[in-house]
Design a protein that fits this description.
The structure is a single chain. With 371 residues, the chain is an alpha+beta fold. It has two domains: 182 residues, D-Maltodextrin-Binding Protein, domain 2, CATH 3.40.190.10; 179 residues, Periplasmic binding protein-like II (D-Maltodextrin-Binding Protein, domain 2), CATH 3.40.190. The chain is 34% helix and 16% strand. The chain is built from twelve helices and 13 strands. The strands form three sheets. Strands 5, 6, 7, 8, 9, 10 and 11 form a seven-stranded mixed beta sheet that branches. A four-stranded antiparallel beta sheet has the order 3-12-4-13, with helices on both faces. Strand 9 and strand 10 form a beta hairpin. Helix 3 packs parallel to helix 4 and helix 5 crosses helix 12. The protein starts with a helix and ends in an 8-residue tail after the last helix. The structure holds 2-acetamido-2-deoxy-beta-D-glucopyranose (4 copies). The site of one 2-acetamido-2-deoxy-beta-D-glucopyranose has 7 residues, from helix 10. Keywords: Secreted, Signal. One of its GO terms (cellular component) is extracellular space. Pfam families: Transferrin (PF00405). This is Transferrin-like domain-containing protein.
Length: 371
């Protein structure tokens, strides 16, 4: 009792430190759907039950963009986002990534975007696409729009005027194309997107739903874009490196797919050369990374450490809660992709996660006023 004031100060200091460390260990996860929120709550409950250090709280955001705002202003701390969103989060909101998904346990590659053509099409080069015909999985998709159009802008084949009107520039550039959804009000509010961007589309068996942004358009999606080239409507299709193999050997029972032969198709490389279908690692327009967990810069380490403890407990769980399974939630890829093997720590900035090819490509769209 010599220095009662001193004791009080120590007690207060301890209290402050304790409350700070608890505060520090709260991670508020921004979820954007009921399924995500439910899985987040299950993870939080199971983590607490296993005495995992740190506390997970689940908050709700209206959209990924809303989650970016919430993480920036501190009402949330973390959220899983896909490549284009990661770019927006970094570029517009100054956020970064803590960990990213790995499908092979080694790197954060999701897929390669490749340009596919018929072997018999000679005279075809990625550096001279003017007036050619093209098949795209869908309007504003990463594979079917962002990557190929960004590539054509970066190589100065397409230029957008001050209006920054990409559909017009693309319509002027290609002879005819199929870009499912390009005439939907959502992507064409003024109704004046070029008609030739639907001219390689075929609709359904009754010629309806031409250029629809769904599978009724038979050239929709990656399989549809492949079909569009296989059936000779387009010179080039922009697809994933896996698309051909996903539709071969009876995996797709439609007659056009059963007729496919590997020798009939080739890849067009960004340097103007060509390659066979197996050479996507050296012949692609972009490498698209897997999803990653977006955080504030100062939280990178803290969130990584928490997720490291979480994945050690739940990544390879054979019973009970399983971090990379979505079977209980009525849809695939809830919170994390189901094909994730582990979460990798991201030491560099968000652009290092996105990689040079994809970052360059996204820069082509800066005039659209991303933020
Ligand atoms: C753990 O997760 C399972 C789903 O895998 C869920 O049914 C259960 O309620 C969770 N446990 C706790 C304590 O939250
Ligand atoms: C944080 O951002 C969200 C989303 O924009 C907003 O709803 C909320 O009011 C903001 N909170 C604070 C404390 O600024
Ligand atoms: C889970 O198992 C896979 C396959 O054995 C392994 O590659 C991965 O590193 C494991 N994940 C964790 C977090 O231990
Ligand atoms: C973009 O263009 C520059 C110069 O033409 C080139 O060096 C770079 O590799 C291109 N990037 C991509 C992703 O194609």
């Amino acid at each position: 009792m010599d220095h009662p004031g001193g004791h009080l100060a120590v007690v207060l200091l301890v209290l402050v430190l304790v409350s700070m460390s608890t505060e520090n260990n709260i991670i508020r996860w921004c979820t954007v759907s009921d399924a995500e929120e439910q899985k987040c709550l299950d993870l939080a409950g199971n983590a607490t039950a296993r005495n995992i250090r740190g506390q997970l709280l689940c908050v709700r955001g209206q959209s990924p963009t809303d989650c970016m705002k919430q993480i920036k202003n501190g009402t949330a701390d973390a959220s899983t986002m896909y490549a284009d969103e990661i770019y927006t989060a970094g570029f517009c909101y100054g956020l970064d990534v803590a960990v990213g998904e790995s499908y092979n346990g080694v790197d954060g590659i999701n897929y390669y975007v490749v340009a596919l053509a018929r072997t018999s099409s000679s005279d075809l080069s990625m550096l001279e696409m003017h007036e050619r015909s093209s098949c795209h999985p869908g309007m504003r998709t990463t594979v079917g729009w962002t990557v190929p159009i960004g590539f054509l802008v970066n190589t100065s084949q397409i230029s957008v005027d001050e209006q920054c009107n990409f559909p017009h520039a693309v319509g002027d550039f290609f002879g005819y194309s199929c870009v499912p959804g390009v005439k939907d009000p959502e992507h064409d509010p003024k109704g004046n997107n070029p008609r030739n961007l639907c001219e390689a589309c075929i609709g359904d068996e009754n010629d309806r739903h031409i250029c629809a942004n769904n599978p009724r358009e038979r050239h929709f999606g990656e399989a549809g874009a492949l079909r569009c080239v296989a059936e000779n409507l387009g010179d080039v299709a922009f697809v994933k490196h896996t698309t051909v193999f996903d539709n071969m050997e009876g995996k797709n029972q439609e007659s056009w797919a059963l007729d496919l032969e590997l020798e009939d198709l080739k890849l067009l490389c960004p340097d103007g050369r060509e390659a066979n279908l197996f050479q996507h690692e050296s012949c692609h327009l972009a490498v698209v990374p897997t999803n990653a967990v977006v955080v504030r810069l100062e939280d990178k380490c803290r969130v990584y450490k928490f997720l490291e403890r979480v994945q050690n407990a739940f990544a390879n769980a054979t019973e009970g809660f399983s971090l990379f399974s979505s079977v209980n939630y009525g849809q695939p890829d809830v919170l994390f992709s189901d094909s994730t093997k582990k979460l990798l720590r991201v030491m560099g900035t968000y652009t290092s996660w996105l990689g040079p090819s994809y970052t360059t490509i996204l820069k082509a769209f800066e005039c659209e006023g991303l933020c």
